Amino acid sequence: MDRKDEHVSLAKAFHKPKENSFDDVRIIHQSLPGSRCQETSIQTTLFGQTLATPFFINAMTGGSEKTGHINQSLAILARETNLMMATGSISAALRDPSVADSFKIARKELPNGLLLANIGAGTTLEEAKRGVDLFQADALQIHLNAPQELVMPEGDRDFTQWLTLIEEIVTHLAVPVIVKEVGFGMTRQTIQQLLNVGVQTIDVAGSGGTSFTQIENARRKKREFAYLNDFGLTTIESLLEANEIPMNFGLIASGGIRNAFDIFKALCLGADAVGVSGVILNHLMVNELEDTIALIKQWQQELHVLYTLVGAKETLDLKKTPLLLSGRNKDWCDARNIDWTKYSLR
Predict the structure, then answer these.
(1) Domain-embedded: residue 108
(2) What does the pLDDT look like over 169-202, one tens digit per residue?
(3) How many domains would you assign to the chain?
(4) How far apart are CA 228 and CA 218, in angstroms?
(5) 171 lies in a domain?
(6) Through-space distance between the first and last CA atoms of the chain, rounded to whole angstroms
(7) Taking the complete model, does pTM exceed 0.85, yes or no?
(8) How many CB atoms lie within 10 A of CB 14?
(9) Dist. CA 214–CA 217, nearest whole Å
(10) Looking at residue 85, what is its pLDDT?
(11) Which residues are annotated as a binding site for Mg(2+)?
């Protein structure tokens, strides 16, 4: 089986909505929100672009005939619901032009929408430029996935040039660059390293959803690395880390998003936008495309209600929402010297 097809099959097999760090974030209710649902705007701004909706379809797949059909459906979904979309890693298309159509189909179905191309952190500037041009991308995602590569039987083992290559791309590429994790989260130290080399938009992409160490371990004969299935920082822990950085930058949260309430909580914790992958992919694979379009439209309607619930007229207002952190989130704050009480005193 093609590796990309195998990834999709395993992601579907392992997908089960489960408890995660979002469950330990509570909204502190205010009885007089003073707001009106019809006046709320769920728009947000990211790398200078206005997004009609504060969540988007994050990087998933591509590189085979089967995954090309999935990208086509995802692009139609994005078009019909006015979402930004990221392709899966285009590295395969840069190596083998015969699979490029499995990614190009996204731009064909989404001619006027925002489309992000995705590459690995070991990619050169020249390859990044080729990828952006090939898919007419509005921005470039560079993914960080060291744990996945190390568990992957055929994965990379040398990460010494990653930061240097990222800096070169950020400095010379004509479109905005987003650096994202793939489900292992980020500490404030990692975020600061990226900001120091000029990165302006970061997707902390924590654990809690699809586990690529689990997927890659399932592809190994002996499956030696089961203890890394839940490796990394959660999305909430990563957002808490990001909030400790005294610099302004575009902050994206992804990893473990299950519904509109998770999106809402991530926005309350400082995210400018939220990437959704696994739950959309799974819904699309077990339902009709029309059903998934209806789900996304339902989430958009729910967000208007949730904004009104806390008196927010726009997305930026959500960062003032008082929150109560408990469980592992509070433990993380205590261990990492983060004042968790400031969230409840907003």
Answers:
(1) yes
(2) 999 999 999 999 999 999 999 999 999 999 999 9
(3) 1
(4) 12
(5) yes
(6) 52
(7) yes
(8) 16
(9) 5
(10) 97
(11) 149
